[in-house]
Design goal:
The chain contains nine helices and no strands. With 180 residues, it is mainly alpha-helical. It folds into two domains: 66 residues; 91 residues, no CATH class.
Length: 180
C-alpha cells in the first residue's frame, strides 16, 4: 500500500484526527497529508458538480419541452480549466449549481479539519486583531476571506472554485453576524 493510500485510508477511518495524527500513523510527513487531503477535496468537489449536473440533466430529460445544452467552452476557458485543474465552467457552472456546491461545503461536517465555523472565525479574528492593532469580529473574517476570493477572481475569473468559496464565505458570515 502506498503512503497516499495509507493516508486516505486513515482519513476515512478517523475523520476527526488532526493532520499530525494521520502523518504519525501513516509514517509520513504532514505536508504529504495536506497534499492528499487537498487532492481528495478537489476530487470531492468535482464529483459533487458532476452529480448535480447529472441530476439536472435527468430532471430536464423527462420534461415536455426541449432544452438545448451549451455547445462547449471557448479555447481560452478550456485552457484555463486544464492548467488550473478547475471545475469545468459549462454546463456545470450555472448559478444554481455553484450555490448548491457552496452549500454542500459549508453545511457538511468540517469540524474534523477546521472546527466549528463560528469558533474558527472568532479565533482568526482574535489573531488579526492583535496583528492589526484594531478589533476584528468573526463576521469581518468572513468578509475579508470573501474579498480574498474577489481578488483572486480579478486575476482569473474562470477559476470557478473562487466563486464557490466566495459564496460560502458570505453565507458563513451572514450566519455568524445573525448569531451575534
Amino acid at each position: 500500500m502506498s503512503k497516499k493510500e495509507k493516508v486516505l485510508e486513515l482519513m476515512a477511518k478517523h475523520p476527526k484526527w488532526r493532520v499530525s495524527q494521520v502523518a504519525k500513523a501513516a509514517k509520513c510527513s504532514e505536508a504529504l497529508v495536506y497534499i492528499v487531503r487537498s487532492q481528495a477535496r478537489e476530487d470531492e468537489r468535482h464529483a459533487a458538480l458532476v452529480e448535480l449536473d447529472a441530476e439536472r440533466r435527468a430532471s430536464t430529460a423527462t420534461a415536455t419541452w426541449v432544452s438545448v445544452q451549451p455547445t462547449g467552452v471557448s479555447a481560452e476557458v478550456q485552457t484555463s480549466y486544464e492548467e488550473h485543474n478547475d471545475i469545468p465552467p459549462q454546463p456545470l457552472a450555472t448559478r444554481g449549481n455553484l450555490l448548491d456546491v457552496a452549500k454542500t461545503y459549508i453545511t457538511k461536517d468540517r469540524q474534523a479539519d477546521h472546527g466549528d465555523a463560528e469558533d474558527n472565525f472568532s479565533r482568526i479574528a482574535q489573531y488579526w486583531s492583535v496583528h492589526l492593532g484594531t478589533p476584528v469580529k468573526a463576521h469581518d473574517v468572513a468578509v475579508m476571506m470573501a474579498l480574498l476570493k474577489v481578488a483572486r477572481i480579478k486575476q482569473n475569473p474562470h477559476h470557478i472554485d473562487n466563486w464557490v468559496d466566495g459564496a460560502g464565505y458570505f453565507a458563513c458570515g451572514g450566519e455568524i453576524a445573525n448569531l451575534q
